[in-house]
UniProtKB/TrEMBL annotation:
Source taxon at top rank: Eukaryota
Key word Phosphoprotein present: no
InterPro entries xrefs: DIOX_N (IPR026992), IPNS-like_FE2OG_OXY (IPR044861), IPNS-like_sf (IPR027443), Oxoglu/Fe-dep_dioxygenase_dom (IPR005123)
Record's keyword terms, sorted: Iron, Metal-binding, Oxidoreductase, Vitamin C
Domain Fe2OG dioxygenase: 210-309
Record's protein name: Fe2OG dioxygenase domain-containing protein
Family: Belongs to the iron/ascorbate-dependent oxidoreductase family.
Signal peptide: none
């Protein structure tokens, strides 16, 4: 696909600063009824021409967590193991979070992102020091092109967040969803521990569920979706992600050098393995690379729960689990702190390259 050459006087840094200093995000551009996306959002020509093909041939596993009594827990563990090893992502149904809580979280996220600009600007910040913040493109100045997405970020733990720091429009819904998704995360970590042949509480004892952040993503309708991305190719900088997505779709995973659609399933939540769990499992589990397409249809909403130790002063070292190692399965990675990993991830942004490469032995 051909794209026009920028004029000689085009100043990308100046354009990035103008977008950033507007504090209005991508929604601010859409509200101004633009018909062409600004050049800072356009994917480079080599990315467009070198992209992987799209395939619907790989079914995304859907695991019924409510079938434990009839199917037996061991069957559920086997399904989780198969999905974590082969795909790195699966969807869960009968997960225990009431439909009203799920719907309320999506409605609350929509309510915030469609507030008046002046209200959202109060929370707009670049950087990672604030526990509650609104922004667009955390890696705006590091990325090759900006993503068509705004984000509301809440750091919910390990240290409790003062509820009054949450915007009133989404406070109650977020607090309830956070409580419910943390409980679900605990259940999934137990299943993953067993899938590794370990005691159910092993990953919990490693603080994998100790902290979590809630990110509400808003993808407005895009006038030229073929030229940009909702979210660039990446894997997640955490132990585990639980994603709530609406019915629009657009999420894709990279599997065997093809992009595979992750279709929305009514009532389901998406679970994907994070980089640190791939490291701890010594590559037994896969931290799947994924992306989100921009779309003429919108807004698309998703709410991601990242289980990690963001900004938490932990000295715990993470490396391949020793009980999984043997002469035939030596360690692939060195031991690191969560902060070491997070600092590297944030410094490079969503550049399409695995953050794990830096920490290989």
């Amino acid at each position: 696909m051909e794209t026009s050459t920028p004029p000689p006087n085009y100043n990308r840094l100046q354009a990035l600063k103008a977008f950033d200093e507007s504090k209005a995000g991508v929604k601010g551009l859409v509200d101004r009824a633009i018909t062409q996306i600004p050049r800072i959002f356009v994917r480079p020509a080599d990315e467009l021409t070198g992209d992987h093909p799209i395939s619907d041939e790989v079914p995304i596993p859907v695991i019924d967590l409510g079938g434990g009594a009839s199917l037996g827990r061991s069957s559920v563990v086997e399904e989780v193991r198969g999905a974590a090893e082969s795909v790195g992502l699966f969807q869960v149904v009968n997960h225990g979070i009431p439909a009203g809580v799920v719907d309320g979280m999506l409605a609350a996220a929509l309510g915030f992102h469609e507030m008046e600009e002046d209200e959202k600007r109060k929370l707009y910040v670049r950087g990672s020091d604030k526990r509650v913040r609104f922004g667009s493109n955390f890696d705006l100045y590091e990325s090759r092109f900006a993503n068509w997405r705004d984000t509301l970020f809440f750091l919910m733990g390990p240290d409790p967040l003062d509820p009054l720091e949450l915007p009133q429009i989404c406070r109650d819904a977020t607090l309830e969803y956070s409580k419910q998704v943390k409980r679900l995360g605990t259940t999934i970590f137990e299943l993953l521990s067993e899938a590794l042949g370990l005691q159910p509480d092993y990953l919990l004892e490693m603080d994998c569920a100790k902290g979590h952040a809630i990110l509400s993503h808003y993808y407005p309708a895009c006038p030229e979706p073929e030229l940009t991305m909702g979210t660039s190719r990446h894997s997640d900088p955490d132990f585990l992600t639980i994603l709530l997505q609406d019915s629009i779709g657009g999420l894709q995973i990279l599997h065997q050098n093809k992009w595979v659609n992750v279709p929305p399933v009514p009532g389901a939540l998406v679970v994907n393995i994070g980089d640190l769990l791939q490291l701890m499992s010594n590559d037994k589990f896969k931290s799947v690379e994924h992306r989100v397409l921009a779309n003429h249809e919108g807004p698309r909403l998703s709410v991601a729960c990242f289980f990690n130790l963001h900004n938490y002063a932990s000295t715990r070292m993470y490396g391949p689990i020793k009980d999984l190692l043997s002469e035939d399965n030596p360690p692939i990675y060195k031991e690191i702190t969560f902060k070491e990993f997070a600092d590297h991830y944030n410094s490079k942004g969503l550049d399409g390259k695995s953050s794990l490469t830096k920490f290989k032995l």
